[in-house]
Amino acid sequence: MGMNTPTGNVKLYNRISHTSTAVFLVDFVAFLIDDEGSSFITGLNKSWLTTNGGTGGSTWKMVEAYSSAASTNRQTPPTTSGNNALDSFTGTGFSWKTGSLLAGDWIVLECGGTNPFHIYIELNSTTQIGYKFMPLGDFSTGGSAVSPPVSPNGFSATAIPGGGSSSSLNAQTGYTSTVYYTGDAADRFFSFHINLATFMYIGETNQGASADTRPYVMYTDSDNLRWDMITASQWSRLSPVDNATELTAGSNVQMFNVADLGNRVHYGDVIDATGEFRILPVGVFFDDTNHNHFAGWLVGVGSAPRDGVLSVTSGTANQADRGDDTGDGIGPNSGGEENFIFTSDLNTAPGVMHFWDGSSTFP
Which of 55, 79, 91, 191 is the most buried (most CB within 10 A)? Predict the structure, then answer.
């Protein structure tokens, strides 16, 4: 068993220093939609690269954006081609066009495919970004130019967290300094870690229930860069049972020694008695009443033994996993190897492993 390796076009962003949260957010949006041509982007460090072939941002596009300082505050991209170009917005002072965001500015992105989803991203303050996840891809455009948007033109009743409430956002802080993130067009997810202290994952899981046509999850314990096997509610999603109920009792799937339930895999010795350093996949299980189910395996991230054979803070290696080489990350031990980046903010808990192309410079 190993990391649930992305199967499609993956973009990687080497760890880069940002001068402010606002600069990070513009850079991150440009990364997702594959915008390297907008005029102000040239001033940012475009160090992202594509692996597994193709352009990783091809299925991400802009839905609508708001700029508090602009003459025309709320806009949808004017053309289909503009969905992947921040320069396509019009008017004087539109922040997503100029690259100069202010607190309250927001943008909605769509990750396409058979069952697209929407993500609302807002610059809450100079140090914080808020998220709203719409698994049904049903954000309503064209409403009043306010932040956050309000009903009926804004969040749907099935948005996460808090449904249509404009005051409920999943917030995360600490976007200045160094960030590493990945985006995958085929498996439809993004993940990143910040300052080796916080972690975010929003998007698809693999190999859950066959009837689950929208297997999308959002990590809500974002202040930690580790796999916490104790906290009960770390993930949210829309229930696959009715596509209406917000589930919040999602937790990381654990592996135990049945003779000693306190002996959790990857909480024990750094390297097992075989002398090998193993990556394990990370699954998500929801225990909400009448909606309990296994949601599937996360894509592009895995679990590592606590402290690892690398630095507690970061490191790179290849040939990390002696397991699956088929690309699905959970197959039989067939001698394959996987590349990863090791990150952790606590040496007593399993570290977060990020997919890596095996050759790009990091950090």
Answer: 191
